[in-house]
Amino acid sequence: MPGAVRELLGLDGENRVFDTVLMGRRTWELGRDTGAPDPYPRLRSYVFSRSITQSPVPTVNFVSGDPLEKVRELKQEDGLGIWLCGGGVLAETLWPEIDRLVVKVNPVVIGAGIKLFHSDEFALRKLRLAGHHVYESGVAVLTYRKE
What we know:
Number of helices: 4
Structural class: alpha/beta
Oligomer: single chain
Strand content: 25-35%
Number of domains: 1
CATH architecture: 3-Layer(aba) Sandwich
Helix content: 10-25%
Shape: globular
């Protein structure tokens, strides 16, 4: 959850699942443009960008190199999980390193949306449902693992 939302809801507990968040530049810019240049201050943040090579925010790490190489490096470190937050282009690039896919389905449709995986080619990707939870609000969280 973004830091501002955590504060509004009075959530101050430690993250138990993730300690690192990955974003593409456009996803990061959405936060920046709404006043949150470090939208996840409790997590180590990495933004992948070919156009911004120096971080304009000291608490956010910008990576201009190979995303797969960086993620493989991060996965070798001790710590909690790595969360890929938005960015169909980045998700497509990182597909070989994605261990599980968590899809949140909301009972509200806003705009046209972003592709989950942005590719110009049709790719069949088999996943297996590993868990699910439906909240009273109608939000469904589906967890899949690669087959």
